[in-house]
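cron nightly-structures :: item 1 of 1
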Amino acid sequence: MELSYFLFVGGLSALVSTLGHTVAWSGAELLAKRGPKEGQVGLVEALMHLVSGLGLGFIYWLSWGFAAIVAVPWWGRGLAFGLLCWGLLAAPVLAAAAASRGASARVAFLHAARWASTCLIVGMACAWTWERAS
């Protein structure tokens, strides 16, 4: 498998995840009659998700698509990879940031959900790419 496929799929799916999460959260804030302050994603945060998606695609490529997990469909591998990455990489960082800055529970949940959706969608996209190309 070519590394460039996984870098492309990882980066693109991270941006799609960020866009989808932003649209959903903005819609929820609109229905709740609040301003879209918390749901907005800045350029720096979108770039962080892009770089993280590239890194997750690279890690998936290094793991050989979780080839050691047999008798599991591609979406099971993608979910396992995404949950593992979110649990090991994003969750501790988000917890430390929320504790150090004293962020509200709503903002902490927003960021945790955004990073969870990015990790899961990148994992699913990479697993699907591995399945189709193999």
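cron nightly-structures :: done
The two ends are 8 Å apart (CA to CA).
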